[in-house]
Amino acid sequence: MSPGGTHRLNRSPAALEARIAELEAQLAALQQQSDVSHEKQHLLEALFEHAVDILFIANFDSTLRYVNGAFKRMLGYGDASIKRPTWSYIVEAEQSNRLKEAIEHVMNNGFWVGRLTYVRADGSTFPGLLSTFLIYDQAGKPLARGGFIRDLTEQEQHERELQTQQAQQAQLQAEIISAQRKALHELASPLIPLAERVLVMPLIGSLDSHRTQQIIATLLEGVSVHQAKTVIIDITGVPVVDTQVAHTLLQATQALKLLGAHVMLTGIRPEVAQTVVGLGVDLSGIQTLGNLQQAIAASLR
């Protein structure tokens, strides 16, 4: 121990060499960390620059701090892009106000996602999906506002094409349903040409107000087209004959008489005759026969 009680530093060659090796190892480690950091930064920059979507970082006064290559390519402003505030790329004052509301929402909630219409340097526009968010420093304080802008032109075109296809499909489906209804109507109320100027309509199933109107319309059209003089209406397949059905038959008879056609009614079962009499419906103006065979024979005579 030296005078004064302090330890003498070990300055032997071996100790110095060990210390130098330790410092060199620390320097190599720091250099490696720096190389890795630079490599990561280079990869991120390459990723951002070649991204299809626009990437940007904006200050809180809406001036831009960073824009990637897609920003310049998509908007067409070149290096001047970064000199313009973010709101200057939005179409119309209404959308500018919406962007301001979006920025306010970001400041309060940390993020915002929505559609805006952007304007390029040549005056053309495109729909864009803006996703913007807060960027924080290491202390957790808001540092800037980042964002992505995706060009929705192709997506909206696809949506329009899909809507057109859906509309066409809906129209085609409506036409198919209409054709099916028409076919069912013709099957439910068939009008059969029996002989020259003789038509037969066998009715099957229940008759409601809509179907009765269709029956009358079919009869009138058929008489007019075929210039028929005799129309045979067979109600054997009608399960229930009530006041509405009876009045329908009367209306049809009166309408056909106006066109010069004679009406024969067949298929009146005993219980149907009782019901008609009980209802007090007067069918005296209609010629009635027991069955369809008798009516056909009469019409042919």
From TrEMBL:
<feature type="domain" description="PAC">
    <location>
        <begin position="112"/>
        <end position="164"/>
    </location>
</feature>
<feature type="domain" description="PAS">
    <location>
        <begin position="40"/>
        <end position="110"/>
    </location>
</feature>
<dbReference type="InterPro" id="IPR035965">
    <property type="entry name" value="PAS-like_dom_sf"/>
</dbReference>
<feature type="coiled-coil region">
    <location>
        <begin position="13"/>
        <end position="40"/>
    </location>
</feature>
<dbReference type="Pfam" id="PF01740">
    <property type="entry name" value="STAS"/>
</dbReference>
<dbReference type="InterPro" id="IPR000700">
    <property type="entry name" value="PAS-assoc_C"/>
</dbReference>
<dbReference type="Pfam" id="PF13426">
    <property type="entry name" value="PAS_9"/>
</dbReference>
<feature type="coiled-coil region">
    <location>
        <begin position="155"/>
        <end position="182"/>
    </location>
</feature>
<dbReference type="InterPro" id="IPR036513">
    <property type="entry name" value="STAS_dom_sf"/>
</dbReference>
<feature type="domain" description="STAS">
    <location>
        <begin position="188"/>
        <end position="299"/>
    </location>
</feature>
<keyword id="KW-0175">Coiled coil</keyword>
<protein>
    <recommendedName>
        <fullName>Histidine kinase</fullName>
    </recommendedName>
</protein>
<dbReference type="InterPro" id="IPR001610">
    <property type="entry name" value="PAC"/>
</dbReference>
<keyword id="KW-0597">Phosphoprotein</keyword>
<dbReference type="InterPro" id="IPR000014">
    <property type="entry name" value="PAS"/>
</dbReference>
<dbReference type="InterPro" id="IPR051932">
    <property type="entry name" value="Bact_StressResp_Reg"/>
</dbReference>
<dbReference type="InterPro" id="IPR002645">
    <property type="entry name" value="STAS_dom"/>
</dbReference>
